[in-house]
């Protein structure tokens, strides 16, 4: 056996496949038997349950010798270190969090107290309301129910011992242990998360930054007042104290164009000096402010308040993506050492400012600018003329037709917005409708508020929508016309909206008529026509359509006839042809010209002659039905109707028996076939109206046959089974004692094969059904008389067993080579599953073209294949490759096929793999669980 595998594939470090996921897999095989018949076989299905795996990390990392975080503090002071815990397992888990003290570094001391708090708002600043005690277990804090791949921000809060001296250090780290798997830890062994407090007997200045207020100005600028405050928490005075802020820098996300307002800084105490330097060399003027103080005694605070302007052009933000900024304090201690400390991050959100403009095509600002859009031609061929007063006009519109105005809408706000559109009618005929479109398609409701809208538009983006106004044909003429006022409303701020007007100068009235051919224009009805036909036969009516309006027009043709059938009705569409010679007959050249659905353009006062063809359904019931016809203009919507013609359906008898069946069975054995006996005529059948025959051929010695119409009670003849079904009301739903038009019943046929029947012997059983009504009506047609009955054939072939395919799965653990198989099929993410596919020829004949097929299961990656000498595989129908060659990584759902080079020419020929009687072949496919 040869192994081809991906040794480079490692265990994923993220959560991986979710715990509890079922990985299922089933294989199949295709082959040909000795007759050349292509056959398939399916394996059993195997399933693997993905088990939960624990995992946890804490950041930032640090060692006692190189701490990840450092702060200075005087004896007795409180120090806060922020951390992040992440659940790297694949299921929800809880974690025991503790703190450890390191004493390996010289002069380290233990903190007086240490406690853990959750950073509830995730800002990295310990707020008074976040000093909430956590649940405890064994003296450790419990972080409960953390979802897979999710993070929890927290604080480690220390108090420096009051007895500490300036040579001391406090070195601590948080640790975490999974409660699901106590072997999954961080900080307990290996990785460390140490932070260090350097104890000083000197000045220690902390610094904080906060947002005092934000104001949106009338021009859209955002005015922000910041306060920077520093307190000396040390034991000695600090000199050369400088509070500074650089609002455009690497530690700030304020947008370009933001400036410190000149002379806005106010300091306390006022003995300090304020400057606005431009010394950072970044090319941004007015982005720095600083306050210089003299000495700051222990316990004394200094502060600076200043104003920043964020420009209106800056993108709006939200709480998840604010504009952030930090300040610094620089000072000199009593030993002459200069220290710079950064503040917390101060966040500002800039609210979106909404504004919209909508106007005529090409002029979204309308009367607000000197632009006037150009005249344009609508989809209906009408001319629309915009003006500079936010109005565009079409001079005239025929009743029953539509005009499609184009509108330009622009987002004039500072944030992406979705604009809702509404339309209000003024002075237009009752029944006028408005459709709001984009590229001819109805506008979507992209924000789900129930109103059609533009979809998201970026600031400054312009979109074009269409407003289609359709005036009803029944509204008649209107010399004064009317208008539609279109309103665009912001979704960010619904008080921000704009309107524009679409004007229709006048409304004119069209007219059309349709009817049987006569000497007058426009289908003035002649004597109503009637056609008497059998089911399935065409009825043809000469017709004409005339334009009685004042302008050229064209008309869509439609017609329907509703025929009663058993159990309901069937609508039939009328098909129209041009009567080119006007003789009222569908000539071959007119039929060859093809059907039409539109008259083409008809000038005022003119007409077109037509032939209306009705294809009567094969199962139409006897009787007369009305032909309903309409000619309707797609331009003006005006229409005319005709209901003067009728079709009389004659009586018909028709039965169908379908389909042919074939099957295989062993000897002895039974083959069961099902056929449908259907009444396709328009008259009900009882036992006296049908006759049946059954004729066997081929291998018949010892073979027997039984028939049933309920699948349970079988009879030696079809006629007996049909009579039984009629007697027990099993033939239909309307009149269950008869088989009514359009109804069908299932005829079950049992073919019993005797013992000793030779393999591959074939029996053919021919069944017939004929219509034999006792007293058919005058003119009735028998579609299936005894001389030409409906018939089916059942072909039964005696066979032995063929191909069996079996599938198993093994858990290989973390070794793709699968040298050791773990008990049970359940697996952890990152472990390997080996699927074994075995196919065995159960027949006495040789099977050829045997191909085993499998797919890479969901939540896995293909990692390797094995097979016998001469074994080949291919990926997704590609080239065949020897199993000695490792496959390229393939994702879930990829088809993998296996075959054997039976003739040893190192390729898979069309007729390989061959399996002789009793022979088997085995391949394996190995996958890694994500």
What is the compact description of this entry?
This protein is mainly beta and about 950 residues long.
Index terms:
seven-stranded mixed β-sheet, 930 residues, single chain, Immunoglobulin-like, 2 helices, 65 strands, mainly beta, 6 domains
Q: Give the strand content.
A: over 45%
CATH-level-2 architecture of the largest domain: Sandwich
User: Which CATH class of the largest domain?
Assistant: Mainly Beta
**Portion of residues in helices?**
under 10%
CATH topology of the largest domain: Immunoglobulin-like
Approximate shape: flat
Distance between the termini: 26 Å
Radius of gyration (CA) equals 44 Å
Task: Give your account of this protein's structure.
It is a single chain. The chain folds into 6 domains: about 1-35 and about 800-930, Immunoglobulin-like (Sandwich); about 55-200, Sandwich (Immunoglobulin-like); about 210-350, Sandwich (Immunoglobulin-like), CATH 2.60.40.1290; about 355-510, Immunoglobulins (Immunoglobulin-like, Sandwich), CATH 2.60.40.10; about 525-650, Sandwich (Immunoglobulin-like); about 655-800, Immunoglobulin-like. The longest helix has 10 residues, at about 720-725. It is mainly beta.
